[in-house]
Design goal:
A: alpha+beta; B: mainly alpha; 20 helices; 72% helix
Chain lengths: 116, 421
């Protein structure tokens, strides 16, 4: 099955953390990504710019409405994602638990809907 | 046919038959329908042919065939809708279900214990909400009807039915595996299973609501689950410890409340009403659990404390020293504020109420038990024993304000009345 791992973090705290020892976090992410490429679980993955750069778009009556900021104000914000292949939810949970941000934020696992 | 007790058969076998059919047909809902089909067939055929020698094997064989029929009908229906039958058949979930009788041996015997464990671990998967875990377990493992589950938890049939549908859909769509967890996460997952069983028990023992008869049924189901799991995973101190704990609590069910529903404190209970056979069984299981290798399980330690209470012929004979020692063990392996509070209460029986009050006040100052009615209740009792009447009254009032169950509220009112104006 394919799962999307959505990485949520408190941006303010994560920024502070990055200032303190961003290099270590980068190295942890690099090692984690390498490990799931090697194990064949990796399909895709990226880090995102902070929500201050986000733009939300809606179309109402044919008119495009653009607003500044993310869809919803939440305590933790979407910071990045991985798309993985896993045999089942237990394998996916095991992988999610190894995402470095799982210790400071949270990882939402969503199975990908397959149209077959 | 004389003597075919279909309800009894269903309660005893439906869980096990379902457990195997889920593995065989690879789909929770299809397997449930197949189980219904199989029991229907039994009701129709057994009066004519007599009960088979191996009812479970018969039910599984018939259920599997019915499941295969249903699957074929589904595939035909889908192919009429324009899907390619070949594509579906290329990935049959029935790969493990050969039709030959010989192959049935492995299908029906070797895997049965494992199937039941698979079902239990799947129902108690942490990706499911607690209510869904409880509902699924009672419905599928215990073979209770949706109606009974709904009544026991004082919710509507629709709420429980919807919850079960959503849970089964999540099992399928989120890819919750039908397996006993691998060794690396087995202990962690087993903790979750035990927590679910214990929740069913406590809901039955001290349930926040609902008619008492049904609540007793829940405790009985939890004990049944505990026995089942102890049989499937022998040698696990946490499993045996939980079973012992439930038996020892349940043994004292009679005597805990008066006919009017008032709480009777342990010290005032009529100990002749306790179930001696259950106490003896629980005590034996605790001994066994504590002798098993590995660190002691919190359930086993709690059971050992319950055993000491249950085995004391009179309140005055309670071995408080050993109980305090066990609470100290429990504090090391499960350091929670509630355990600290219980430890302080037990300690008051050995070192006196003044020393215990210091511990309780320190605990209250940390604020982690704010809103928990038993903290002021224990404080009130200690203050009463120290002769500090006004402070005791104030503490009982605080306990009363926080208690949610009526019998407990009445108990605090009674205590206040005893202290006088």
């Amino acid at each position: 099955m394919q799962y999307l791992m959505l990485i949520y973090e408190n941006e303010a705290e994560a920024a502070k953390q990055a200032e303190a020892d961003g290099a270590r976090m980068m190295e942890e992410y690099r090692a984690f990504t390498q490990s799931i490429i090697k194990s064949g679980n990796f399909k895709a993955g990226d880090a995102l710019q902070p929500t201050s750069t986000a733009t939300t778009v809606r179309v109402k009556n044919g008119k495009t409405i653009t607003t500044d900021g993310p869809f919803a104000e939440t305590r933790e914000q979407l910071a990045g994602y991985y798309l993985i292949d896993a045999a089942n939810l237990d394998e996916a949970i095991g992988i999610a638990a190894r995402v470095p941000s799982a210790r400071s934020g949270s990882i939402e696992l969503r199975p990908v809907l397959m149209f077959s | 046919m004389a003597g075919l007790d279909i309800d009894r058969l269903y309660r005893d076998e439906a869980g096990r038959v379902l457990a195997t059919l889920i593995r065989v047909v690879g789909d929770f809902e299809l397997a449930e329908e197949a189980v219904q089909d199989a029991f229907q067939a039994a009701v129709e055929q057994w009066p004519e042919t007599g009960s088979p020698d191996l009812p479970r094997a018969w039910l599984i064989r018939v259920g599997r065939n019915k499941g295969v029929d249903r699957l074929r009908r589904r595939i035909r229906a889908r192919s009429r809708q324009g899907e390619l039958e070949a594509e579906v058949l290329a990935d049959p979930p029935l790969a493990a279900a050969p039709d030959e009788e010989g192959a049935d041996e492995g299908l029906f015997d070797a895997g049965l214990a494992d199937d039941m464990l698979r079902l239990i671990f799947t129902c108690c998967h942490p990706a499911l909400g607690m209510e869904a875990q409880v509902g699924l377990t009672l419905k599928t493992v215990c073979g209770l009807s949706t109606e009974v589950v709904a009544r026991a938890f004082v919710t509507s049939h629709e709420t429980v039915a919807q919850r079960l549908v959503r849970a089964k859909r999540k099992i399928r769509d989120a890819g919750i595996p039908y397996q006993v967890p691998p060794l690396a996460i087995l202990d962690e997952r087993l903790e979750g299973v035990l927590a679910t069983i214990y929740l069913v028990f406590t809901e039955g023992y001290a349930g926040s609501s609902g008619p008492s008869l049904l609540r007793e049924d829940l405790s009985a189901e939890a004990i049944r689950l505990g026995r089942l799991l102890d049989g499937l995973m022998p040698g696990r101190p946490a499993v045996r410890g939980l079973l012992a704990l439930m038996l020892l609590h349940d043994a004292r069910r009679e005597g805990r409340v008066t006919a009017e529903g008032d709480v009777v404190l342990l010290e005032d209970q009529d100990r002749t009403r306790w179930d001696r056979a259950r106490i003896a069984e629980g005590a034996r299981l605790v001994e066994a659990a504590l002798r098993m290798p590995g660190p002691p399980s919190p359930y086993a330690v709690q059971a050992a404390i319950a055993a000491l209470h249950a085995q004391a012929p009179r309140w005055e004979d309670t071995d408080w020293r050993q109980i305090v020692g066990l609470y100290e063990v429990l504090l090391r392996i499960q350091p929670t504020p509630v355990v600290e509070l219980n430890h302080a209460a037990a300690l008051s029986m050995v070192d006196g109420p003044a020393r215990a009050l210091d511990l309780v006040d320190a605990l209250a100052a940390r604020g982690s038990l704010d809103g928990y009615h038993l903290l002021p209740a224990v404080r009130a009792d200690l203050l009463r024993r120290l002769g500090r009447k006004d402070e005791a009254l104030a503490a009982y009032r605080a306990a009363l304000a926080r208690a949610r169950l009526e019998p407990e509220q009445r108990l605090f009112v009674r205590r206040m009345a005893e202290l006088g104006p």
